[in-house]
Design a protein that fits this description.
Helix content is 48%, strand content 17%. It is built from 6 helices and 9 strands, in the order E-E-E-E-E-H-H-H-H-E-E-E-H-E-H. The strands form 4 sheets. It has a 3-stranded mixed beta sheet, with helices on one face. It is elongated, with a radius of gyration of 20 Å.
């Protein structure tokens, strides 16, 4: 089986130790993944903090990224469903439904990325505020750490990562140890 390295700061990184991912239904090996160390986690967080300091991409750029990932997911939907079924031991019908739900999550997040806006605050509730307005502006708050469970290895990754991307926040993802391959496949989109 091919080894799946870690993705840190846009680069695929191998590690000294690896984990074997097995199908819980029949025990067969599905894949191998690099095992992250505390140092790998530190590097990932530092890269995410640096990305946050550089500033978020524009709203339309974030929406375009989410749309591109969704398009890639939909184009390869059956391969994603087969991977989910293999690593999670799910029935293929359930895995296919999860792929569709994840595609919807990406679409909803792309739409949200385009519609994020501040609020206009009228000040005329006070006599001194007549004719004046204030406003709020939304800005990414910081790095999102996403830890996902095994039971929906694609959709729950999308539920955590896509809204963060829509908001302009860098993400450090730790997928479930039992079902990490789907998250890596999504990261490759």
């Amino acid at each position: 089986m091919e080894l799946q390295p870690l993705l840190i700061d846009g680069a695929w990184v191998d590690t000294a130790e690896h984990d074997i991912v097995v199908n819980p239904y029949d025990g067969r090996e599905v894949g191998r993944v690099a095992r992250a160390t505390a140092e790998d986690a530190r590097l990932a967080v530092e890269a995410a903090v640096a990305a946050h300091r550089r500033g978020a991409a524009s709203q339309h750029e974030r929406a375009a990224v989410l749309d591109r990932v969704r398009d890639a997911l939909v184009a390869d939907a059956e391969a994603f469903a087969q991977l989910i079924a293999a690593e999670a031991g799910k029935p293929i019908r359930t895995a296919r439904a999860e792929v569709q739900r994840a595609a919807d999550t990406l679409r909803f997040s792309a739409v949200e990325a385009l519609s994020l806006a501040g609020v206009e605050v009228p000040f005329d509730a006070s006599a001194l505020g007549v004719g004046k307005i204030g406003f709020t502006r939304l800005r990414p708050r910081g790095v999102v750490t996403a830890i996902t469970p095994f039971n929906f290895p694609l959709n729950l990754v999308c539920h955590k990562v896509a809204p963060a991307v829509a908001a302009g926040c860098p993400v450090v993802l730790k997928p479930a140890e039992d079902t990490p391959l789907t998250a890596y496949a999504l990261a490759g989109c």
